[in-house]
Specification:
Blueprint (H helix, E strand, L loop, with lengths): L11 H22 L5 E3 L4 E3 L2 H10 L3 H10 L1
């Protein structure tokens, strides 16, 4: 990826940074979807979970970055 997209202002480090973020986000989402109470709505591209399950998940979660990531999905 030695090419720079000069007209768009996109550089190699921008692309690599986005790929790292997407990989991290996918890792968290995949881990959450392994929990049976969590599901995925493909029509709306949203995470699906009952409120009581969500509240318990947030209560026991010590990872603020995971919490913030999931809030963006709902």
């Amino acid at each position: 990826m030695r090419v720079c997209f000069l007209e768009a202002g996109i550089k190699e480090n921008h692309i690599e940074g986005n790929i790292k973020k997407w990989n991290r986000d996918y890792f968290y989402l995949d881990a959450i979807l392994q929990i049976p109470e969590f599901g995925w709505n493909p029509n709306e591209n949203k995470l699906v979970v009952e409120n009581d399950v969500w509240n318990e998940f947030v209560r026991v979660s010590n990872f603020e970055f995971v919490y913030n990531f999931i809030l963006n999905l709902l």
